[in-house]
DNA sequence: TAACATTGTGTTCTAAATACACAATGTGTA
DNA sequence: TACACATTGTGTATTTAGAACACAATGTTA
């Protein structure tokens, strides 16, 4: 092993039934939605004795014939019935003792979906949307995974038009602002918020109005199509410098 | 597997010698240093037929009894002889066919070290520092790993005092600016650069001057001790909002 | 002692962030 | 039918950060 991952085929075969392969690989998905003015995450009751009563994230072992992105996409599809979702890898958690049954490393993804479009397989009623801010404790290291993904979401939200994956096609600026406030746990000045969103030039004015609201209706907007990217953004390796 | 990673011990044992464990887990380290006014990366000649003549990053399989972080730290120590290094996880690469000899997923870390303090095990003379901007092609998917890590480094450099891990304890503002310029591939205005660094309040003026320079010597500075963090920063999950 | 390379420093202009108030519109209800 | 209510839509003044830009002083080398 002295030369890194430059394993020769023979070497690889020699060790392939030894300890080196006794690490299982899984993915876990932090699937966010926005419902009742709250950021929620899809969780399921843990069926391990050790974690009885606690919730866990949705995950699965990675199959030998699928890559990590495919595995997380599969989980998302199985659970939400949705085809076209925003999904991004965040971090890999690999502590020795993170899984009580053996050595399992897991790669965490976060996903943003529109609550209205999802059709949960709720036949299994352990599966449900849980408000993120109420969650204190989870099975495994899933609370740490959730926190890390929430941190990443908060970073992304400032700079990239990802948040729209949580909203229906048409939305008012009030709904958008409430969503930012829910994710960031802050309150924002309405005029400044509108100015800033305006500068970003992400939205199209649909010339339609809200309906069925018990107050003066607001204009409806949608995201400009060129910003609808469901696949993970590619990080430019040549960003505009911010230093001097 | 329908309940994610909630594997019961029995389930785990049942599958533990089946295909699910036929995925090997490795780490790869993108170890940067700054030498001769260039950003360099530590590489080694690939010893696979398929990649003859190409360089690869330093990596190794993760041992069943070590964390991912521990594994990458071990590689770093083995190769550079250094004890106290900056190391941060970046991304996990899991394409099915990324390794010609079998299914190997790898978690990439990047590391920043001071070229002067390192004692390379150069007995193996395939191992060397290679200028990052010359590298066009590498073994495996290592060029993509390098690019991703360089992208992360560029992001970090703007906001966090990580760059100082590439410099000796004492440095001049010119050296610091040249390092920023090397990493970001831009040229910066000297007065604006100094103003911006001043605002950040990262440095201590040592009241010492450069020596042995063929021109007017500049003042020497060092990083304030409270910013010396070798361990990965913890991402706050409650950042200051930048929206409105 | 002159040419050279580099240090150290400040102002103006522009862009973005923040703080803040009032008239207009549609709904619900007395 | 008119009033209370909730919310929309809009602009200015202040502060803060970024960008562009020039010149005298210092130490080295030839």
UniProtKB/TrEMBL annotation, chains A, B:
Q: Where is this region: Disordered?
A: 215-244
Against InterPro entries, the record matches this protein to: NUDIX_hydrolase-like_dom_sf, NUDIX_hydrolase_dom, WH-like_DNA-bd_sf, WH_DNA-bd_sf, WHD_NrtR
Q: What sequence ranges are listed for the domain NrtR DNA-binding winged helix?
A: 163-223
Query: One Pfam match, by short name?
Result: WHD_NrtR
Q: Which CDD domains match?
A: NUDIX_NadM_like
Domain Nudix hydrolase: start-end pairs: 25-147
Name of the protein this chain belongs to:
NUDIX domain-containing protein
Q: Supply the source organism for this entry.
A: Terrimonas ginsenosidimutans
């Amino acid at each position: 092993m002295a030369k890194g991952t430059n394993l020769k085929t023979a070497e690889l075969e020699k060790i392939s039934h030894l300890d080196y392969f006794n690490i299982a690989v899984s993915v876990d998905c932090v699937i966010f939605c926005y419902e009742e003015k709250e950021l929620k995450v899809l969780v399921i009751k843990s069926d391990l004795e050790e974690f009885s009563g606690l919730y866990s994230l949705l995950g699965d072992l990675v199959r030998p014939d699928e890559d990590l992105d495919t595995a997380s996409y599969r989980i998302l599809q199985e659970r939400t019935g949705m085809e076209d979702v925003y999904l991004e890898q965040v971090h890999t958690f690999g502590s020795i003792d993170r899984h009580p049954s053996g050595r399992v490393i897991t790669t965490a993804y976060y996903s943003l979906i529109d609550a209205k479009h999802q059709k949960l397989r709720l036949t299994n009623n352990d599966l449900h949307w849980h408000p993120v801010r109420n969650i204190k404790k989870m099975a495994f290291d899933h609370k740490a995974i959730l926190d890390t993904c929430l941190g990443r979401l908060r970073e992304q939200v400032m700079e990239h038009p990802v948040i729209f994956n949580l909203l229906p096609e048409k939305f008012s600026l009030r709904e958008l602002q409430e969503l930012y406030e829910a994710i960031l746990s802050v309150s924002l000045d309405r005029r400044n918020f509108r100015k800033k969103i305006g500068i970003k030039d992400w939205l199209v004015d649909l010339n339609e109005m809200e309906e069925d609201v018990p107050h003066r209706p607001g204009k409806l907007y949608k995201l400009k199509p060129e910003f609808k990217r469901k696949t993970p953004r590619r990080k430019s390796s040549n960003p505009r410098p911010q230093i001097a």
